[in-house]
Amino acid sequence: MLAGQAKNRRPPERQVNHTRDILFDNVVTMLVNFSYGVVFVKTHKTAGSSTEAYLQAALWPTQPPVQEQQGFVLYRDGWCTSRLQRDVAPLYKTTLLCLRNKLMPTRSVRIRGTRNHSTPQEIRACVGPNFWNRSLKVVNIRNPFDLVVSEFFWRSRRATTRRTFGDFVRDYRRLPNNAALATEIDSTWELLRYETLREGGW
Question: Is 0.90 topped by the overall pTM?
Answer without folding.
Answer: no
